[in-house]
Design goal:
- This protein is mostly helical.
- It contains 15 helices and three strands.
- Strands 1-2-3 form a three-stranded antiparallel sheet.
- A hairpin with a 6-residue loop joins strand 2 and strand 3.
Amino acid sequence: MQKLVQASRVRADCLDVPKDARATLTPTSRIRILGYRNSCRPIHVAVFIEVVHREIGVFFSIHWTMNLIVSLRVYAVDAGIVKNNPVRDVKMPKAKTEGFKPWEAADVEKFYATHPEGSQERLAMDMLPFTGLRRSDIFQIGPQHVKDNIIEYRAGKNDEWVYIPVHPDLRAILDAVKKEHLAYLVTPVHGRPFKSAAAFGNWFGQMCAETGVDGRAHDLRKTLAQLLVESGNSNSKLKARFGWRSVSMVNHYTRKADKRKLAISSAAKLNENSLTPQTKSIEGLTPENKAKTNT
């Protein structure tokens, strides 16, 4: 009875419930809504996130959920709807994903074998791995961006300038493209530039699926990044090439690079710039010949 009396004093309009739904609220529901608003604690949010992680198991879903809850609680506090924001004390779960998967050589060959020269599919496949541009940038690249055989473009994602020397093979391909639009890539059906990054990405993804290749446009960006780091390019060069601002982003894209190739490359560079004349070949240096070298 006491709860009913308390519930009767709770005004439905203070719950920010739509008018057509207020009539359906029972006194108990009103108490529960107000109680949840003001008694939610970090442990409640943490348990909720744990359930999402266990039931769904998708990292991006968890982060999307966390960001949504944070935004809602911040708004609610600012609007005076609730008194506390328990989400701020909950740590974001760490990523457990390998991210985009680089293309295999067999996949590239299969794509080339399926789509002939002169097709838009082939042009996209030529431009993506040669430039390493994001899909949000590649569909806008045109002749106006090529200066002194270098693609100069301000990346749309972070507003960083990107400088990409045009490979001779890519140069020949671009020279053969008709200069009818401000973009090299056009839709195969209507022959007009793609309207958005999503439009291009979805089209290319569909082409990959029809070809039987498990890859996407952004996967080729990661493929090129790994090839460049395996070739001995420094972090500074990679940042300038891909428009990255931090070394952490370089590491994010290249952490799966072939470590064996990197080790061999570093040994070769050490041979070229050795501080001592002890040996001319460090690769394959065994304890036995190492001892001979030191004598």
